[in-house]
Design goal:
mainly beta, Immunoglobulin-like, globular, five-stranded antiparallel β-sheet, 3 helices
Length: 160
């Protein structure tokens, strides 16, 4: 399980071009004592533009710029792909700022595959459809705010 969760973080830091990126910090798939669970807000993620209806979307949710930069997420999700659109939710969240990093594990090997230069060969995306320049999208571009407890925030994300 830790390998799968670490792989989610790899997608987020893909463009650094180093193999050491594969050893990022764990992202809990279910809430732990360190994971915020004291809210009732929900984030629904709609992934669009899925070209291969196989494999899984692997996503990580971050609640701070520091966590985003160091790949210390607060939640993770792995959702099987069976169509060109995939949806999943992160629930029981407090108000605050969040960002999402994800990739489509097309071949189902549990890893973000890269070429010889460390660039991803599988589709990836960030919340707000943010893009990076020679690296992952910056927090300021990917972050969004969940303002009211008990509400759902929808992120419609298109894969690159």
């Amino acid at each position: 399980m830790n390998k799968t969760l670490n792989t989610i973080a790899l997608a987020a830091i893909f463009a650094t071009g180093t193999a050491s990126c594969a050893h990022a910090a764990d992202v809990p798939a279910t809430p732990t004592s360190a994971t915020p669970t004291n809210g009732t807000a929900e984030i629904t993620v709609d992934i669009r533009g899925v070209k291969n209806a196989k494999g899984a979307i692997m996503a990580a949710l971050f609640d701070s710029e520091t966590g985003y930069k160091t790949n210390k997420g607060v939640r993770a999700s792995t959702t099987n792909v069976t169509a060109d659109t995939v949806s999943f939710s992160f629930e029981h969240l407090p108000e605050g700022e969040y960002a999402i990093k994800l990739f489509h594990d097309v071949n189902g090997d549990g890893e973000m595959n890269t070429n010889l230069f460390g660039m991803p060969t599988e589709p990836y995306a960030f919340s707000n459809n943010a893009t990076g320049n020679m690296g992952p999208a910056k927090w300021v571009k990917a972050k969004f705010t969940v303002t009211a407890t008990g509400t759902a925030t929808v992120q419609a994300i298109r894969l690159n």
